[in-house]
Amino acid sequence: MNTRPVIYQAKHFASVTAHEAVALVTGFNGQASDLGRAAVSLAMSGRDVFVYAPEPDILLSGDPALLPAYATETARQFRAYAADYPARRYSGYSLGGGIAANMQKNDPEALPGLYAATGIDAARLVTSNVMFRAMVYALHKTDIRRRYAERGYGNEQLARTWQPFQEPPHSFTLALGALDYIVRPREIRQKLASWQPNHAMRIIQVTGCGHNGMKRWFNAHVLSMVDELPCSNQLQPRSDAFE
Q1: DSSP label of 230
Q2: pTM of the model
Q3: How far is the C-alpha of 43 from the C-alpha of 72, rounded, in Å?
Q4: In angstroms, how far is the first alpha carbon of the chain from the final one?
Q5: Which of 142, 143, 207, 239 has the highest Cβ tally under 10 A?
Q6: Helix, strand, or coil here: 88?
Q7: What confidence tens digit (pLDDT) does each residue in 83-111 have?
Q8: Sorting pLDDT into bands at 50, 70 and 90, what band is 116?
Q9: Which one, of 19, 83, 74, 91, lies nearest residue 48 by Cα?
């Protein structure tokens, strides 16, 4: 199978006094402007922010090699841009959170990551999450599970191909919506329980927010996620609601 490069948007939000470079990755079907408010907040706090938005074909193509290929290429470009900065950080929302977290794992000097509405099994999302499949069909008239099945990929095969995306980075802050039917609370709680012994993490639970609401919450509160370092088994409930 020949995997073509993933086309994506990239936008730079510069800070005059930058002490840190941040890679910020949007979710599926996103645009760089989706996380523009978060990028501006980070830039105004002394960080240069590089926002990456892959085109929908990263999943719609049915080619499972596109996701890891895009993560590798984005990491290469960001590390080249950020080579002279004193510090690097990775951040993202939804699918972009999984991509950015994979980038962070391969950068041993990275600062703790900042993520929202992410962390579930991408293979199960594509093959078993009815809400996600319905959303994809409504937007693109595509049965995403069938796209992968036509290439011989069911849940088991996708899980093996995307296995590197299943393990989180060592240190991160993750915000989750209590009403999120894409990153479903029960599923992500099981993941968190398996991660806790070996990872430093700060989990923020936001009541009243679904998946899209968490994007708005992240844009409004990203700086509060930077303020406190994650530690083992740290949980913080929040009552902020955007939906």
Answers
A1: -
A2: 0.90
A3: 25
A4: 42
A5: 142
A6: strand
A7: 999 999 999 999 999 999 999 999 999 99
A8: very high
A9: 19
Extract the tokens encoding 222. Answer: 């990203």
User: Is there a contact between 74 and 99 (Cβ–Cβ < 8 Å)?
Assistant: yes
User: What's the pLDDT band for 242 if we cut at 50, 70, 90?
Assistant: very low
Beta strands at 20-25 and 8-13: parallel, antiparallel or unpaired: unpaired
Length of the chain: 243
DSSP 163-197: GGGTSPPSEEEEEEETT-SSS-HHHHHHHHHHHGG
Half-sphere exposure of 113 (CA within 13 A, CB side): 34
The three-point CA angle 26-29-30 to 5° equals 35
Is the distance from CB of 232 to CB of 202 less than 8 angstroms? no
Burial status of residue 237 (CB atoms within 10 A of its CB: 0-12, 13-18, 19 or more): exposed
